[in-house]
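Ticket opened by: R.M.
Priority: normal
Category: complex prediction / small molecule

The reporter submitted a protein together with beta-D-glucopyranose and asked that the result be attached to this ticket for the collaborator who will pick it up next week. Submitted input follows.
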Amino acid sequence: MYFGIMNKHILYFTISFGIASLLTGCGDSDSDGNIVGPQKGDSSSSAGSSSSAEPVPVVKPIDYSKAVAMNKKLGKGINFGNTFDATCETCWGAGPLEKEQVDYVAKMGFQTARLPVRWDEAASKEAPYTIDPSYISRVKEVLEYFKANKMRVMMNMHHHDSFLYDLVYSDESCNNMSYKQRKNNGCNHQKAKENKDNLEKNLTRVDSIWAQISREFKDYDNDFLLFELFNEPVYGVSSATYNEMIKRTYPIIRATNPGRTLVYNTYPWGGAGGIRSLALPEDGNVIIDIHYYEPQKFTHQGHNSPCKTEEPVIWEGARSEKDKIVSDFQAMRDDANAKFPATNPEGVPITIGEFGVSTCANVPSKAKWIQFVVETAESHNMSWQYWAFTSVGGFELYDKYSGTWETAPVAALGIDTTGLGPIEIAPKEPETTEPTETESKDTDSEGANP
Ligand code: BGC
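Result attached by the on-call engineer:
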């Protein structure tokens, strides 16, 4: 189990820091097709940009009131991260996602769960890209936990690595590796180019997976379930490719889900800088999802690596630090208003689908930052989902192994911490059916949980 977590730590560190730290400026692909862009959740490219001289295309104003009403209902949310977005539900130590956890989190006052799902691993690699029916059943089972608690769920496509890391590298040796090996061998995704040869296949696979999800989940109440197309497009999914993906999947999803609220993250990394390049469908039932982790050196300190022994990076809550957050959120709102004119007074709705601070950060500092981000988001009527609930590579509010909560950060989210304690999980009924010979062999060969 521990190794599972550490692998993920190392892997994410490589992505977030080893590579993201090389990033400068903003944007997507340069004239050579090299993908360039800011760090995860970086808002800097957006800040103040609404006053830039860049022409804003004239588009027909849309009535977003339906999505605004839904965004209001989303309210306070939490990511059930590193369960279904892991390589298997239990692979990274946060899963399995338990009914008792959902009951507990709902009682605490969380209204929404963002459920990141790695359909990539569950769908076949070749056409018709069928999703494993047992995976779909398990996701459905989990949705029932939330439904029973009257929580809403924003379900997405997360860590779609076969597309994100399908790149042509300047270091030739990287091109002969699997995408998993590339991530683990320091291949520089930043200097790589989109793999144009596979673009159509990758897009078709996403279309097909979404067609299946749309069919399978169409009967869930629109007031309960939202679909989020794709988490944090970056690297192999350029801004143009992401917009193409939006264009192609939109009619596919709408064919079976005419009334569902659709959520769109931004390129790259879900950052606010991507609002200006986002091509939303002409539809009033959509919400923009922005990930906010500013300043990154504070929120991600020690993330996916052991906590440093030297002084932690502190966020004091000084006027200048607060002003930066205020201006980032104002720029987000201004950019969204400029890019997506609306007939309703609130404009296109925005949710902060991820924000959070690593557990290496000093706790009072962390609590101050969380409280100020929440306050600022709410002052713009933005809903939010904290990253994340449990044992999630350093961002957890709840340590499921020790049964303890980080109470100051929880309180900073506006949640009453009185009586918070371990979540008791009832022992599961043993399986009643005898496994067939093949089933037991398969389980052995896959080695179950690491
Ligand atoms: C990723 C996580 C990561 C978190 C914070 C999420 O989008 O899926 O692996 O821990 O962001 O960076």
